[in-house]
Design goal:
Strand order of the largest sheet: 6-7-8-9-4-3-10
Number of helices: 1
Radius of gyration: 15 Å
Order of helices and strands: EEEHEEEEEEE
Number of domains: 1
Helix content: under 10%
Structural class: mainly beta
Strand content: 35-45%
Distance between the termini: 41 Å
Bound molecules: zinc ion
């Protein structure tokens, strides 16, 4: 048990660890991911499913169908998306990078479904930056 990465939901009821390194990390710009995560694009790290270990709050994890063969897993209290599973790729889990407490240490290497990306998705660096909110 390597505990390489700690992960949790926003309300803190659910904690899980990842005992390995991600196989790959990608930004997905598909319409489905954007809707399901309520975000401009979704960043996922693909881990071996056996490396995913729920340490707290397993009963609070709710799942929903995602397409024909996938399921999305999220916190039933705060709604934080946690990871996705797919019946046709049963040996992997796609962990939503935002759930990983030290996600900044993981570098995405590719963007997928760029044909449906938002027109400004690659322009983030050109936008005004505030250290906190717009008032701070
Ligand atoms: Zn939660
Ligand atoms: Zn997607």
């Amino acid at each position: 048990m390597a505990d390489n990465y700690q992960a949790s939901c926003a309300c803190g009821n659910i904690h899980f660890v990842l005992d390995g390194e991600p196989r790959v990390t990608i930004n997905c710009h598909c319409t489905n991911c954007r809707k399901m995560n309520g975000s401009a694009f979704s960043t996922y790290s693909v881990f071996n499913k056996e490396d995913l270990r729920i340490t707290e709050g397993a009963d609070d994890i709710q799942s929903a169908r995602m397409g024909e063969h996938g399921t999305k897993h999220f916190c039933r209290h705060c709604g934080t998306p946690l990871y996705g599973l797919h019946e046709r790729a049963a040996d992997i889990c796609m962990v939503v990078l935002g759930a990983i407490d030290t996600g900044g240490a993981i570098l995405p290497i590719a963007n997928t479904f760029c044909r449906s990306k938002l027109p400004w998705a690659f322009e983030l660096d050109k936008m005004i930056k505030h250290e906190l909110n717009m008032l701070g």
